[in-house]
Here is the input.
Amino acid sequence: MVGTYDVGNSPRGICFDGEYIWVSNWVSDNLTKLRIDGSLVGTYPVGGEPLGICFDGANIWVANAEDDTVSKH
Here is the structure.
């Protein structure tokens, strides 16, 4: 399905974990989790200014630029 979907402020990174789409939102300091159809599953807090995001086969990892940390979900 082609479309545009609402996430947090200033989305910067996106990844697919095999079931869900994850978006890191730089200004909102959170992750948005979407179903493949674009419907919202949830929003999760992370560190300040999340940028890079990846899936390691089990977890979602996010690099937080402001905090110099990584978050695991």
In short: The radius of gyration is 11 Å. The chain has no helices and seven strands. The first strand starts at residue 11 and ends at 16. The mean pLDDT is 96.
